[in-house]
Amino acid sequence: MVSEPLISATILFALIVLGEIISYLTKARVPMLLTAMVSYLLLTWAGVLPEKILDNAILPSLGAIVIGPVIMHMGTMMPLHILKSQWKAVVISVFGIIGSTTLILVFVTLMFDFRTAASGVGPIAGGIVALLITVEKLQDLGLANLIVLPAIVQALQGVIGMPLSAILMKRYSRYYLKNREHDKNVATISDKDKTKKENIFNKNPLLQNNVIRLFIMFFLASLAFIIGSVTGIHYTLLSLLFGVIGLKIGLFEEKEMQHNQSFTIMMVTIILIVIGSMGGIKPQDLWAYLPAILSILIIGTIGILIGGYVGAKLIGWRPTKALPVALTALYGFPGDFILCEEVSRSVTDDKDEREDVFNELLSPMIIGGFTTVTVASVILTSILMNFI
């Protein structure tokens, strides 16, 4: 019965709902994604959930397809004038990676060896691409026994990063709500831009069709993938850029996927991919490499915090704003987006204030996540693994 796609998908969906409920009850102290991931892992270990439940559900396969369009949607949430001001988020992210890499290479090498340290640097600094580079290099060197280490680090790093980020983001959000200043001129400009975009859409009735608008996003995401395969630029970065440009020229509306009513189901499928990353972890693997894994996670996190704090002091950001941006290295997308939603929901009941907090948090978090997970970590891993 559980092998039926509908039932499998419903069970996995229930884990996400459980996470949402706990996040709401704890006011985002326990992030939804953390609850869903840990619940999936424990239920799989206990034999309650079959190991192939993700394959049966089919939805994760869809999740792999929609990442590009969803990230393009992120671009439609960040107007160009806001992105131009986010160079500070890039600085914070880079300082965080420098901090984690330095501490891991020094202390983990002293505690274990350089191979163990180098195997953990990529995953702790970034996402799945960095992990794949690490795994491929270890296989080439005949060090298949070490592959489980970066895989588990990759899967578990969000367990530390998300709760820590949520605490810091909530503190900053309260500070922001108390000290924010309303700039009427900016609001007026925003209203003019909105009117201009609405006029462009009114002149093109076909663009009001949700199916056509969704097709445009998939077409551009496919184009980003093709360009990325030729240039070496990760397609998610290009998808983000297409979203920003599309918003600027009026091809997309702000928060495009919410207009074509496709965002929720796409986010669910992507969340299932993230949950599935826990599926290959066995209790015996976790136990065998536990000392090295804990060392990499703890030392790496401390390094990110130190680097992010130094960066915050240099550029003049409050640490409670800067450190979550640096910590995006531990979870990236969609964790950064989900945390922004959960935190903005938890700090105020006023709808306008929620939107203000969400907008204040989103741009630096998304840019920080792309800097670490998609760009810097891949470059770092590609270089570092050559020294093993």
UniProtKB/TrEMBL annotation:
Membrane-crossing residue ranges in chain numbering: 6-25, 32-50, 62-83, 90-112, 147-169, 211-227, 263-281, 287-310, 365-387
Extent of the signal sequence: none
Lineage, highest ranks first: Bacteria, Bacillati, Bacillota, Bacilli, Bacillales
UniProt source species: Mammaliicoccus lentus
Name of this chain's protein: Integral membrane protein
InterPro entries referenced in this protein's UniProt entry, alphabetically: HDC-like, MFS_trans_sf
UniProt entry tagged with the keyword Nucleotidyltransferase: no
Keywords (A to Z) from UniProt: Membrane, Transmembrane, Transmembrane helix
